[in-house]
Specification:
alpha/beta, Peroxisomal Thiolase, Chain A, domain 1, 2 domains, 5-stranded mixed β-sheet, globular, cytoplasm, fatty acid metabolism, ACP_syn_III_C, multifunctional enzyme, lipid metabolism
Length: 333
């Protein structure tokens, strides 16, 4: 009987470095309030957003991802050619194939790394961290580049009051590698497709092909449905991630949820009963909702501002269209 060799697993994994890149344009509430018949005050009260960052017409989602990835690799202290796999989460790469990850791997000098895209919207970064953790601990990769990148300004209707005013452009990246000690807790993730229509495109690309008068598909959401789900159901997934990692609220130094809405962040804090000492990611105020990029961008900002330090224990939580969710406890690099 032939006995196959298997990859030799690594005991543990951790995040080695994080990088981010925001769109270069600062878009204020006043800049977008007119077409949605709103005001700076209304947007601030409902969302906590003061400005959002968007990229110019000459930059696409891969351009943002490339800059964020280079920063993450530099922060990790490794060379691009040491990347064994690239996992990119995005809903705004408008080419069905080849994958954005394969192009990105070439751009950053990581060929011949394995490369693939995932579509998990605002939970995409946390989904990808879970996959990177598994790849490293299984022995199938030593270093995995995880990227969440979006240019959501390409898929908004400026007259839409449901979601357009929330959205920004940016990319966040992390390198996950082997570790002598546990650095990434178990990923708690899942989906509820019965609520898929609560965050959606106006129509599909095949609908557009059949009827060009429909115009470019844009995003919509049922705000109340999403708010109730995110504000009152999602906290239990974050709690489950803490339980799976064997930690309690008193062990958490940093909490970084998806930057969907400041009111949702506050509601999650109440339900999780985290100590007042916990540092909370609130990047949404100046960056907006960047979907798959929001969690790493919020962490990158906290690092840049000196609000967190290496070794801090961070509870990170993504949730969004699908509806999908993912959470894990990680040790910050």
């Amino acid at each position: 009987m032939t006995v196959l060799k298997q990859a030799q697993p690594a005991a543990y994994s951790r995040i080695l470095g994080i990088g981010g890149e925001r769109g270069e344009l600062v878009v204020t509430n006043d800049d977008i309030a007119g077409p949605i018949d709103s005001s700076d005050e209304w947007i601030r009260q409902r969302t906590g957003i003061i400005t959002r960052r968007r990229a110019g017409a000459d930059r696409d989602v891969l351009d943002l991802a490339e800059v964020a990835s280079a920063k993450a690799i530099a922060a990790a202290g490794i060379a691009p050619e040491e990347i064994d796999a690239v996992v990119m989460s995005t809903i705004s790469h408008f080419v069905q194939t080849p994958s954005a990850a394969a192009i990105l791997a070439d751009r950053i000098g990581a060929n011949p790394a394995a490369a693939y895209d995932i579509s998990a919207a605002c939970a995409g970064y946390c989904y990808a961290i879970g996959q990177a953790d598994a790849l490293v601990r299984s022995g199938n990769a030593r270093n995995v580049l995880v990227v969440g990148a979006e240019k959501l300004s390409e898929i908004i209707d400026p007259t839409d009051r449901s979601i357009s005013f929330l959205l920004g452009d940016g990319a966040g990246a992390a390198v996950v590698g082997t570790s002598d000690t546990p650095g990434i807790g178990p990923t708690v993730w899942g989906s509820d497709g019965s609520k898929a229509s609560s965050i959606r495109q106006t129509h599909s690309w095949t609908d557009l092909r059949a009827d060009p008068s429909l115009g470019w598909p844009t995003l919509r959401q049922d705000g109340q449905t999403v708010f109730k789900w995110a504000g009152f159901q999602v906290a239990k997934f974050a709690q489950a991630a803490m339980d799976a990692a064997g930690v309690g609220p008193e062990d958490i130094d940093v909490f970084v949820p998806h930057q969907a809405n400041m009111r949702i962040i506050d509601q999650l804090l109440k339900q999780l009963k985290l100590p007042d000492s916990v540092v909370v990611g609130r990047d949404i105020a100046d960056t907006g909702n960047t979907s798959a990029a929001s969690v790493p961008l919020a962490i990158e900002r906290l690092q840049a501002e000196g609000q967190v330090k290496p070794g801090d224990v961070c509870l990170q939580l993504g949730f969004g269209a699908g509806l999908v969710y993912a959470a894990q406890v990680v040790v910050l690099p």
